[in-house]
Amino acid sequence: ALRFCVENLNDEDRFELVRFSTEVEPLFDQLVRANGSNRNKAHDFFKDLKPIGGTAIDDALKKALALRPGRDDGRPFVVIFLTDGRPTIGTTDEEQIVRSVKKQNEGRTRIFCFGIGTDVNTHLLDKITEETRAFSQYVLPEEDLEVKVSNFFSKIKEPVLANPTIKFTGDVRITKLYPSPLPDLFRGDQLVLTTTLLRGRGRIW
């Protein structure tokens, strides 16, 4: 699944891989271009991945979020987080992990979570994705992880609109807008909004 993601990066994309168990180990320690050399290093990195040790979720998320450039160049920055969602190393308190994500992220990064296995901590992963305006997916042992991740990545690799907003003009008063905040839009997406119109006439932008 991860090989598919690396192979299908756009040439102008940048990426990093972070392995975490008892410790957190980045491959490049920075974002690098998705050129042939770096893709080959990523494939070699995959060969050494083994499910050993604990699960340092807090440290892994901190490392991933710290990779975002300090200066916003207009590119969407996303984290694809594959885990069982059960922190066993470092900070293990779920609320503290979510607070840490919120503080460090400041609403700029989407963290898409893939919960893998039969004993997944959906509570924590759903909180992380809700806080970062992303979504979670869960993969059971009998399901094909590669298919789910590749389908997901094929969708998000072509962002169209990030941080969209909606504006009502005229004599319009509305309440209970859903979804709120509005999600990012990717190629092929459809956004359906529901709201309660209390009174007035106007336009929506």
Q: First CA to last CA: what distance?
A: 39 Å
* Most strands sheet: 3 strands, parallel
* Number of continuous helical runs: 6
Structural class: alpha+beta
How are the elements arranged and paired?
Layout: H1 2-7, E1 14-15, E2 18-20, E3 24-26, E4 32-33, H2 36-47, H3 57-66, E5 78-83, H4 94-105, E6 110-116, H5 122-131, E7 136-139, H6 145-156, E8 159-161, E9 168-170, E10 173-178, E11 185-186, E12 194-199, E13 202-204
Parallel strand pairs: 5-6, 6-7
Antiparallel strand pairs: 1-4, 2-3, 8-11, 9-13, 10-12
Helix pairs in contact: 3-4, 4-5
Q: What does this entry look like structurally?
A:
- The protein has 205 residues and is α+β, with helices and mostly antiparallel strands.
- Helices cover 30% and strands 24% of the residues.
- The protein has helices at residues 2-7, 36-47, 57-66, 94-105, 122-131, 145-156, and strands spanning 14-15, 18-20, 24-26, 32-33, 78-83, 110-116, 136-139, 159-161, 168-170, 173-178, 185-186, 194-199, 202-204.
- Strand 2 and strand 3 form a beta hairpin.
- Helix 3 (57-66) packs parallel to helix 4 and helix 4 (94-105) runs parallel beside helix 5.
- It is globular and about 60 Å long.
- The mean pLDDT is 87.
